[in-house]
Structure formats: C-alpha cells, structure tokens
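Morning!

As promised:
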Amino acid sequence: AQKITQTQPGMFVQEKEAVTLDCTYDTSDQSYGLFWYKQPSSGEMIFLIYQGSYDEQNATEGRYSLNFQKARKSANLVISASQLGDSAMYFCAMRGRQGAQKLVFGQGTRLTINP
Amino acid sequence: EAGVAQSPRYKIIEKRQSVAFWCNPISGHATLYWYQQILGQGPKLLIQFQNNGVVDDSQLPKDRFSAERLKGVDSTLKIQPAKLEDSAVYLCASIEYPPTGLSSGANVLTFGAGSRLTVL
C-alpha cells in the first residue's frame, strides 16, 4: 500500500521568502511518481510539479522545485520568492505501479503568505 | 482545450435525500476518476473508470454510492440516501491513457473545479 505523509498542517511565510513544504512517502514499488498540486480557495486542483522515481535530477518548474531524497523517501516542495497568490492548500501525491494511474494524496499543508 | 467540466458546483440537501453529480472529462481522455475530499483532508479515490469499465471501486460505499460512465465519455456519481458524513467536495479528474506526449511518465491528472455537497 502507498502512503503519503505531510506533517505541516499550516505554514506562514513572509512574501518574497522561500518556503519548503514537507512530504514523505511509503511504497514497496520500485517505479513510482510523485506529484505536487496546489488547491486555492476556488477548489480546483492545479498540477505544479512531477518527479519520477528514476529521475536523476530534481524536478524544477519555474519557482517550484522538488527536493527528492529517495533513500529518505522524501519529496519536499520548495517555492522560491513566494508571492501572495501562493496562499493555498498544497498536496503531495503518489502514483505507484505502471499502468495504475490513480493518485494517493497526503493530508495537505495550508500555506499563507503574509505581505 | 476545454477542461474537466463538473456540475452542479454546489448542492445542499437534507439527510436521506438523493443527489447526483455530473462530470465531462477532457475530450479523448479514456480514464476518469471520482475523488471525495472531506474538509481539511486530501482527496480520496472513490472510483476509477477506463472507458466505460470500472478499474477500481474498492473505496466506494456501494450501499449508497453508485457511478456510471455508460458511453465511456461523461460520468454520473449518485448518492442515495445521503448521510451527514457525505458532506464533501466531489472532484472529477481525467487522464489520457495510455500516456502519450509526456516525458518521464508524468501523465498528469487534470481535475475539475469540484462539486461541493452539504448534507443537513
């Protein structure tokens, strides 16, 4: 069974600072994918970044980067130069076995950016 | 391309009443998911369709929940009778399957805006 753990219920950060959102996972699969989604108050889940278990480089997408430490089973999201619009819920998710496309989500972290 | 469409966006019902939610995935997406997101929690998979067949419904409370995707395109999720604990956002998502055109197997799920259910 796959499990995602996000231990930070809430984070408060000053605008323009960098922030790291923690995610640890548990799986017996050798091949898996890790995702981060943002959910603003409007409710829609917005895809941010993806990391494959065999990817040698940490994923980056604009201001988002993923600090992937495979041995520690962690996939932390780093947001650089935070903006007020970054205030939202953030979910870490995992997809296991190739061909089974469902995502298993963590509990989420509510990020608040203060001006 | 158009996104995943869901309706209604909001629904308030009394317990023991019934409700239905509709989802139209992105054109050409063969795989469709229904997730339940209770306030303060992450989404939980209810059911996964591949075309018009069910791939996984192990977490669907089948005594009250049902879902169908008869023609392999749009889908309906029904709750009958509703309980207080069914208050949640019901998210529909779709994915192109088998994966094409994406590197490293990302094959990202695209979500709709969700249908928020309040059971009184």
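Chain A has no helices and twelve strands.

Hope this helps with the figure draft.
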